[in-house]
């Protein structure tokens, strides 16, 4: 706190005392207290501790296991066999690993493109609907979003079942009698088609609801100005809506890439990566090679290679966002 002293001088002209405030030598600004500067960091400590315990420690243990030859024999005898980078060398030298990696990238790309296009269209539709229809559509989106992943996967297994499946019955009733007993999980393409449809259905609500929320921040005066300039619906979207939604679209695309890339539950629950392991993606491949084949060191190495790929994607995203920020400045 700034201390001030008061000196009383006599005014020679009026003969009355004059009060003069003299600031102290420390200056007029109030110095910050020690607690005020450290308070934000102290508030972060609980969340950092929880993150370190629940995320950091398992990652560290997984990293240690990736440098070991760990199987049931080592677990029973409490043996530790260090193998260095042999697990990583074996994984990177395998043609199967690179096929699964390419498959994962293609699978993620198709899903994210469909999710962002359809989610954006639904979000823009929400912005144009009336209150009642918007509430009804939002309710449906929230219910689809709130459904547990395994429950939603089970519903899709029933819908696309070879016998007594709703999809096959509808197709047969519409005239495609050859689809009456079609096995949707008998080939790579058809199995992936069902999985993609499932993931897109589960992801659209997140994109649509957040995009609709973002559209409410755009001033209506901008649309009025564009209309006065003769802009149609498409021109208003490209000149007004899209520039304001661009940061949101970048962030949402990045989140969807991460979410789809590690979609272990849906792929495993639909057909366990079949047929003949042709629908395995990297997280499922790590699970099968690790706990599935009881070669935990190899599974840990593959999982860390998966994390490395996600880190590369994250670095590219952050670089793009920072470049956009510099361009705006």
Model description:
The chain is mainly alpha-helical. The protein has helices at 34-65, 72-77, 86-92, 95-128, 131-146, 149-159, 166-173, 188-215, 220-228, 233-261, 264-271, 282-292, 296-328, and strands at 4-10, 17-23. It is built from 13 helices and 2 strands, in the order ββααααααααααααα. Strand 1 (4-10) and strand 2 (17-23) form a beta hairpin. The radius of gyration is 30 Å and the shape is globular. Residues 8-16 have low confidence and may be disordered.
Walk me through the topology:
Elements: E1 4-10, E2 17-23, H1 34-65, H2 72-77, H3 86-92, H4 95-128, H5 131-146, H6 149-159, H7 166-173, H8 188-215, H9 220-228, H10 233-261, H11 264-271, H12 282-292, H13 296-328
Helix pairs in contact: 3-13, 4-8, 4-10, 5-8, 6-11, 8-10, 8-11, 9-10, 10-13, 12-13
């Amino acid at each position: 706190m700034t201390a001030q002293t008061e000196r009383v001088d006599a005014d020679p002209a009026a003969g009355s005392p004059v009060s003069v405030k003299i600031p102290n030598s420390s200056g007029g600004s109030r110095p910050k207290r020690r607690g005020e500067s450290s308070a934000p960091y102290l508030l972060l400590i609980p969340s950092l501790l929880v993150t370190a315990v629940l995320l950091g420690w398992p990652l560290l243990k997984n990293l240690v296991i990736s440098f070991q030859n760990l199987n049931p024999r080592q677990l029973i005898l409490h043996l530790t066999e260090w193998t260095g980078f042999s697990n990583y060398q074996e994984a990177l030298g395998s043609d199967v690993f690179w096929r699964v990696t390419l498959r994962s990238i293609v699978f993620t790309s198709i899903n994210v493109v469909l999710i962002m296009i359809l989610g954006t269209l639904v979000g823009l539709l929400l912005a144009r609907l009336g209150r009642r229809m918007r509430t009804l559509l939002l309710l449906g989106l929230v219910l689809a979003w709130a459904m547990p992943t395994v429950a939603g996967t089970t519903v899709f297994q029933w819908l696309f079942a070879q016998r007594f499946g709703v999809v096959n019955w509808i197709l047969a009733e519409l005239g495609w009698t050859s689809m009456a007993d079609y096995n949707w999980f008998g080939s790579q393409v058809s199995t992936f088609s069902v999985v993609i449809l499932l993931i897109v259905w589960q992801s659209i609500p997140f994109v649509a609801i957040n995009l609709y929320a973002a559209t409410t921040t755009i001033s209506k005066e901008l649309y009025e100005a564009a209309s006065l300039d003769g802009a149609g619906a498409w021109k208003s979207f490209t000149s007004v809506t899209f520039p304001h939604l661009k940061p949101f679209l970048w962030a949402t695309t990045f989140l969807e890439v991460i979410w789809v890339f590690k979609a272990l539950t849906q792929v495993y629950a639909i057909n366990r990566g079949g047929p003949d392991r042709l629908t395995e993606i990297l997280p499922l491949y790590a699970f099968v090679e690790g706990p599935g084949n009881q070669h935990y060191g190899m599974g840990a190495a593959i999982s860390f290679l998966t994390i490395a790929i996600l880190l590369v994607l994250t670095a590219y995203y952050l670089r793009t966002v920072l470049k956009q920020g510099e361009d705006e400045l």
